[in-house]
Each structure stands twice: as structure tokens, then as C-alpha cells.
Design a protein that fits this description.
The protein is α+β, with helices and mostly antiparallel strands and 264 residues long. It has one domain (37-261). The chain is built from four helices and 17 strands. It has helices at 4-28, 31-34, 47-53, 79-82, and strands at 65-66, 75-77, 86-88, 92-98, 101-107, 111-114, 117-120, 125-126, 139-145, 154-160, 175-179, 187-191, 202-203, 209-218, 224-235, 238-250, 259-261.
Length: 264
Amino acid sequence: MRFPLLKTRASRCRALPAFLLLSLVLSALPFRTAHARIVYGADSRNGYEAFYAEQAHRAFTWPAYSQRNQAVRMIYVSEEEYGKERIEDPQIRFEIPLDGHAVDTRLAYDRIIVGDREFRYADAIVFEGETREPDHPMYAALHVAPARHAHPSLLCVESHSGDDDAAIDDDRIPLFLIIDPVSPHARLYRLPSLLSSCSAITVTPDGRISFPANRYVSNADGHLIGVRFHRYHLDEDRFVDSGHGVSATFVVPDDISRFTLDAH
């Protein structure tokens, strides 16, 4: 009498060692061979914001204070147009939590007023290659990070152009950081603007404030093929090279909107 069921079980038992061997081989392969690389920007969202959002120890995690329908750009009105010459200086006002208090804060095109303290962008400590000019932002978003055991309160102003504003390149975001804004020891910095964001700023567990200074990577023909995210940290009025960073490659050369991270 034949026992097909028992024969089938026996075949499975003989095949089991081969299956286990294949599993061990696959588990030894690098992680990325079994998973497709992430394409940042593939879903039409800002790929750089998505990349920065994955960082550990992000300083700014709260939603930004922003009123996109209200401009903070200084507006010049000519005498020929309206009968008299004047300059409008609109300001956006927020009440933000700082050091346990609600602090009246105003954004203007060339400064930020925090309580009774005024910080002019032209007075900022400037990263090499950036300018002290305010770039006349059309809109600005204000990011707040409350004081923690490792760092004091932080404010970050991120400027965005209007659709018809050519003063700011699409790949450059004027970025201003204030450390300890209600303290007599407050400092204002202008951080690198290329492909940057307040979301890119991190604070290490020992209190070092870090940010990327990005640069494009080109091929021999001059086409943009990627970007290097190189990290710096602040040391009072100095910008210190951390010696660390990651690189990314554009999915299509010269299209900076979509990229993948290079293997370390």
C-alpha cells in the first residue's frame, strides 16, 4: 500500500535544510539589496523636508507660526502711482511661548522683534558665502524650540518668496537662527541657505547645535548630479566643521527635486 501523504512529508523534510540555507544567505546580504532605495521628492512633496524630518535630535518639531496670506516684505509706493511717496513696513505678529511666558513677537522684512528685543538681520553672525542683506522675503515662517536641559530656547526664521518675487532663488531659503532670544546673551546667526530649512537644524544630546552647509556636485560636463549635505555646528560666534555628512544623487541630472541617498 502506498502512503502519498507520508511521502509528501518526507520530501518537505529533505527540502527544509536547503530553505534554511537560502534564508541565511539572504539575511547576510546588505539591507538595501532587499529594499528599494527611497526616492525623496518622488511623491511631489518637498524631498528635502522629508529627508530632514527623518533626522535624529531635530531642534524644531512644532508646527511653524506662519500666515502665508500676509506679506512681511517692505513695499515701496511711488508718487507717480498714488500721488505721494511712501514706504509700507508690514509686520506679522505672533504670541509665542518662551521660557514659560507668552512673548509678543513680530516679523518684519529686515528684523524680528521678540518682546522688547530687536534683532536686525543685518547684524547677524553670517556663515561664509551668505550675505547680510535680508533678501526682502515676501513671506516668513517662525519656528520655535522651547528650552531643554541641553539647550536654551531657539527661534528660526525661514523666508519664502512670493510667486512673482525673483529676489530669492527657488533652491535658496534665507535662514536666521536666534539662540536664547530673551536673554542678554542672545545671538543671531545667518545659516547656509542652499536647499536648507529650519527642519535641518539639530541639537546633539550634549547641546551642540548642528546644521548642514550643502553644495551641489557636478559631473565633467557641468551638469548637476547630486548634493553633499555637510554638517557644521555652532561654537559661540564660530561655525565649526564637524567632518561629517552624507551625499545624495539626483534621479535625473539637473533636476534637484528628486534624489536618493548614496550608500555610506
